[in-house]
């Protein structure tokens, strides 16, 4: 069995993460897996170990798959068999020299991901960013999301192309090329749309079909009403160079409201995340020339998909959902360098500073003694330089985390027993609560939730019983 570290190593190479790293052996075992089998693939993931080659990929003549380490190779006949469609393909002439002792990079088992760096003639299309914003969030989070996008827009170059899709119960595609007033096309959140349907509804369908080679553009239509102007990018009402749509996109963001269909009490909001991603992907497919330049969907999401395709949980809060966000907790003390500690309330001690990185927020938490010293201003005194350095270390680390992450995490600087301490306590395992008879911890969490220890003990008991 592979260790977690080895899976992490593979993720580092291939950008692939799976919910399960073992495969069920039977239909029954598969049915017992409550967490669905899925793969998260990050094709643009930055990796230090990427093999880059500067020649064209060898592709399967039937399915177009690229030669890879899983292909079986007949070195004598110079033939490789595609692992996807089992077609036997001849190697191109310049691979004539291959043998067991001399194989190209794409056949090395460790190069299951390689990058082809190819010189291409002709202009590349500028990068495109389509911002996909969840409006089923509290007002302050929506304001933060808008601010983050506006901040991002100040950093992308003016020639970069920008699009805007917002979603809640329904999905809105904003027409940034319409300058008179904010205008958006609405798609039902519960409906499954094909890319063609989205493009047709947006009026992109005919141009997209032409670019896929369905037929040459009619010279009569060119330049006429509704036809593509030669040299212009079809669909340029939706994804435009920032210099042409900066006003429109900012206006749309400023007027953006929370979802008009408020959540019913004790239920989750109706969030059509899957449909929004499908619509945004179809929008990109319809507006951007295929294979020319980088396009990214920038998702700003406030919760799980509860509506339409990709739904992961029902709206009723009685149905729980598993969640992570894998926060990390580090302790800073006088006794040595910072060290990772358990995400447990017992990690709180009066003489420690804790740094919680919960991705969307970062907390620096001072134990009660440290907090008292800080209030007394010991750090200002020359003889307490070590204390000054101890206070500064987690602050520096927190700001380093914040500066390299997008969207910018929220920063909380708090003390034990202070009101802001809840940002840390909410993430900790409640091994000590007001119910615990012999709490060894210097802090307790006011909750009726059971600790992980109680939960696993109970789980073991149930497993043995059955
Ligand atoms: Zn094939």
TrEMBL record:
Gene Ontology cellular component terms for the protein in this record: COPII vesicle coat; endoplasmic reticulum exit site; endoplasmic reticulum membrane; Golgi membrane
Topology term for the membrane: Peripheral membrane protein
Swiss-Prot/TrEMBL keywords: Cytoplasm, Cytoplasmic vesicle, Endoplasmic reticulum, ER-Golgi transport, Golgi apparatus, Membrane, Metal-binding, Protein transport, Transport, Zinc
Ribonucleoprotein recorded as keyword: no
Hydrolase among keywords: no
Family: Belongs to the SEC23/SEC24 family. SEC23 subfamily.
Protein name: Protein transport protein SEC23
UniProt superkingdom: Eukaryota
Chief place of localization: membrane
Alphabetical list of SUPFAM superfamilies matching this protein: beta-sandwich domain of Sec23/24, C-terminal, gelsolin-like domain of Sec23/24, vWA-like, Zn-finger domain of Sec23/24
């Amino acid at each position: 069995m592979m260790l977690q570290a080895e899976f992490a190593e593979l993720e580092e190479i291939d950008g692939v993460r799976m919910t399960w790293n073992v495969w069920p052996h039977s239909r029954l075992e598969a049915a017992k897996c409550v967490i669905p089998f899925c793969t998260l693939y990050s094709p643009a993931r930055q990796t230090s170990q990427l093999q880059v080659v500067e020649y064209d990929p060898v592709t399967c003549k039937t399915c177009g798959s690229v030669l890879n380490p899983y292909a079986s190779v007949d070195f004598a006949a110079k033939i490789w068999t595609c692992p996807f469609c089992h077609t036997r393909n001849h190697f191109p002439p310049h691979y004539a020299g291959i043998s067991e002792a001399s194989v190209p990079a794409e056949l090395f088992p460790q190069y299951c991901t390689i990058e082809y760096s190819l010189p291409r003639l002709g202009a590349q299309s500028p990068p495109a960013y389509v911002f996909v914003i969840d409006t089923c969030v509290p007002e302050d989070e929506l304001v933060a999301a808008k601010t983050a996008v506006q901040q991002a827009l100040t950093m992308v170059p003016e020639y970069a192309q920008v699009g805007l899709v917002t979603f809640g119960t329904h999905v809105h595609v904003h027409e940034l090329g319409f300058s008179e007033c904010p205008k958006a096309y609405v798609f039902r959140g519960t409906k499954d749309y094909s890319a063609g349907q989205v493009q047709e509804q947006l009026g992109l369908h005919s141009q997209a079909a032409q670019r896929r080679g369905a037929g040459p553009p009619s010279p009569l239509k060119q330049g006429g009403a509704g036809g593509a102007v030669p040299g212009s990018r079809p669909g340029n009402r939706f994804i435009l160079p920032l210099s042409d749509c900066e006003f429109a996109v900012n206006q749309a963001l400023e007027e953006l409201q929370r979802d008009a269909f408020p959540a019913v009490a004790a239920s989750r909001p109706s969030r059509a995340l899957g449909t929004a991603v499908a619509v945004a992907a179809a929008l990109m497919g319809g507006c951007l020339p295929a294979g020319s330049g980088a396009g990214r969907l920038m998702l700003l999401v406030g919760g799980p998909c509860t509506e339409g395709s990709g739904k992961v949980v029902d709206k009723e809060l009685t149905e729980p959902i598993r969640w992570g966000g894998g926060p990390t907790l580090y302790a800073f003390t006088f006794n040595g360098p910072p060290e990772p500690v358990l995400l447990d309330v017992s990690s709180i001690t009066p003489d420690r500073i804790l740094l919680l990185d919960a991705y969307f927020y970062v907390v620096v938490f001072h134990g009660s003694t440290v907090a008292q010293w800080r209030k007394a201003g010991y750090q200002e005194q020359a003889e307490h330089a070590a204390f000054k350095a101890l206070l500064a270390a987690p602050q520096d680390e927190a700001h380093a985390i914040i500066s390299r992450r997008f969207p910018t995490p929220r920063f909380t600087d708090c003390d034990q027993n202070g009101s802001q301490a809840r940002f840390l306590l909410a993430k900790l395992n409640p091994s000590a609560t007001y119910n615990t008879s012999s709490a060894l911890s210097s802090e307790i969490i006011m909750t009726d939730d059971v600790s992980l220890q109680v939960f696993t003990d109970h789980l073991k008991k149930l497993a043995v019983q059955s």
